[in-house]
Amino acid sequence: MAAGSRREILGGLGASLALAGLGSGRAVGATRKIGYAVVGLGSYATRQIMPNFAGCEHSRLVALVSGTPAKLEQYGEQYGIAKTHRYSYADFDRIRDNPDIDAVYIVLPNSLHAEYSIRAAQAGKHVMCEKPMATSVVECEAMIAACRKAGTKLMIGYRSRFEPYNKLAIELARAGHVGPTRLITAEHGFPIQPGQWRLDKPLSGGGSMMDIGIYSLNAARYLTGEEPVEVSAIESTDRSDPRFRTVEDRITFALRFPSGIEANCISSYSSAHNGYRVIGTEGSIDMEPATPYVGQVMTIRKGGRTEPRTLPAPRKNQFAGQLDHLAECILNGNRPIVAGEEGLADMRVIEAIYRSAAERRHVSLRA
Amino acid sequence: MAAGSRREILGGLGASLALAGLGSGRAVGATRKIGYAVVGLGSYATRQIMPNFAGCEHSRLVALVSGTPAKLEQYGEQYGIAKTHRYSYADFDRIRDNPDIDAVYIVLPNSLHAEYSIRAAQAGKHVMCEKPMATSVVECEAMIAACRKAGTKLMIGYRSRFEPYNKLAIELARAGHVGPTRLITAEHGFPIQPGQWRLDKPLSGGGSMMDIGIYSLNAARYLTGEEPVEVSAIESTDRSDPRFRTVEDRITFALRFPSGIEANCISSYSSAHNGYRVIGTEGSIDMEPATPYVGQVMTIRKGGRTEPRTLPAPRKNQFAGQLDHLAECILNGNRPIVAGEEGLADMRVIEAIYRSAAERRHVSLRA
């Protein structure tokens, strides 16, 4: 997948670019690409993010940050990253002095998101931070404040917002294509393998909810366009399972939104789930799988008919779309559609979910 | 559908019957059929139950009870019920004197279930009562006590327990066909039309939960074979909708079972739902629709494959199976698999669901 990436990323494409914002009077620069430093070279960074700079119009990979010299060497060579643009964590703050780096993409364990996002902002760099944004509301607020103070953008890696089927589902749900939405179900989970930082609470901040359940939560929020006012959650974790010594396994949560929509959601580390359904008064929009890297399937039921809805392959996949969105926002001075406040909104609900499960009561989220 | 019913029901089939219990040493009488009085001639009784005596081996329709003389006349003629076997509610207790009536099938509005079940028991008749069993735990307990005192059987109309796909789903789920069950989702609902007794709380005892959500609850219980220990529910009802002046619209509820299984369930009077899914560590069993009168669809996902599971048409449909089950229990002296205690178990959880939604807290159901 990464073959040819270097030429495509770094080569002079030369030609003028067809730009989303062109007609608005706030065009992006026609030749400049935003330079990203990827911070953390785990599997998501190396397998999903880095290969997809090849499909970007406005983004390029210019620097790497890792605590493992062998990874810096391997990926540095693979992506043609100069030795001067390979950083250890001890060197991290020196990114300030590298004008090729416009933005960082934080792909570290969750508990490090806040620290490195804030240090990046303090180094004058824009920030893309993987979800969950951090491990607490307090951290999210500090990240937003730091980026505001530094005048840098802050965006959270909600890739599904750049994926055509999810974009269509949002449009259809909010337009009442199957009647006004009454209920949403959303399920995400997978049987987790032992031996990962995700199972170590000091690094992850939590279990399935932080890692995969957040997709159910975020979907419920983006499909409604509303913020929940009431949360109830029940956790089920076998603490004798060595995987779950410090983090939760399953957590089911219900959300009530101001319009009356209810969402019934699942998060699991011991069973496979990937889907959501929007149920309106006249039918339903089904997405299963809903948030994989590729292969979304949409089915619409309405008026007694059940039909698949197939979209043409997108010009850019969701990863490239996400990377380029921050780049365009930087170039055009716009606000990301999934700015820090979006990550904060999820984190407020996640904290309420954990509180509801722990205190065995509903938690109100009225402002 | 009812064409030919009379001949089939009342005609002398003559031939000896192949009987389920024959090998057990407690055979049913080879020629006797249990005589039912149907109490309440609404659409469920007249469209679903009464035509299905035609498919029964051990049950026959022998009497009708209704407050509407025109219905007694119409259905009495259609099913060949003698005028002496047609009763008004004022006459109800006279069923005691009719030896043709072995059992009654109570298909009245929910709030009348307890009274008529108890009066039937006091008249010496066995009782089949439609679900929900009643409108409170107290009523359910009184019904059980009355039937116990009278020495009559009490069975609740959980028809899905006699439907082949549901029976298979129970078998597969409990046998761990897709690994030990970790989560269950169950959704039932329909957009209700105004002007029904179901929307009048004094008659119904509650809204969607009593009427249709009970299918989600009962499925979660029969698929696990366990009783929930913790319940959490959130209600969403637009009280300005004329349909929902006295009863709830939507209610989502989560159940935690002793083994750690969680069930995430939906009940709705404003959107269409009919399905459940059993998610194990190795795959899932999907039923959608799960509990229609006809047309169940089962899909099993396991080992990367998604395959439909198709069963041959049953010898008896679920309605005839249900009617004959009580008949066989009467003839053989057995206990129904869905006795009064089953209706009581659902009602205990329904009361906990309502309490959780009203008091905005989790409700413990530990014994």
UniProtKB/TrEMBL annotation, chains A, B:
Residues of the Gfo/Idh/MocA-like oxidoreductase N-terminal domain: 35-158
Keyword list, A-Z: Oxidoreductase
PROSITE patterns, alphabetized: TAT
Gene Ontology terms, MF aspect: nucleotide binding; oxidoreductase activity
Organism annotation: Novosphingobium silvae
InterPro entries: Gfo/Idh/MocA-like_OxRdtase_C (IPR004104), Gfo/Idh/MocA-like_OxRdtase_N (IPR000683), Gfo/Idh/MocA_oxidrdct_glycsds (IPR050463), Glc-Fru_OxRdtase_bac (IPR008354), NAD(P)-bd_dom_sf (IPR036291), TAT_signal (IPR006311)
Record keyword Oxidoreductase present: yes
Taxonomy, superkingdom: Bacteria
Pfam families the UniProt entry points to: GFO_IDH_MocA, GFO_IDH_MocA_C
Entry annotated with the keyword Metal-binding: no
Name of this protein: Gfo/Idh/MocA family oxidoreductase
Domain annotation Gfo/Idh/MocA-like oxidoreductase C-terminal: ranges: 193-365
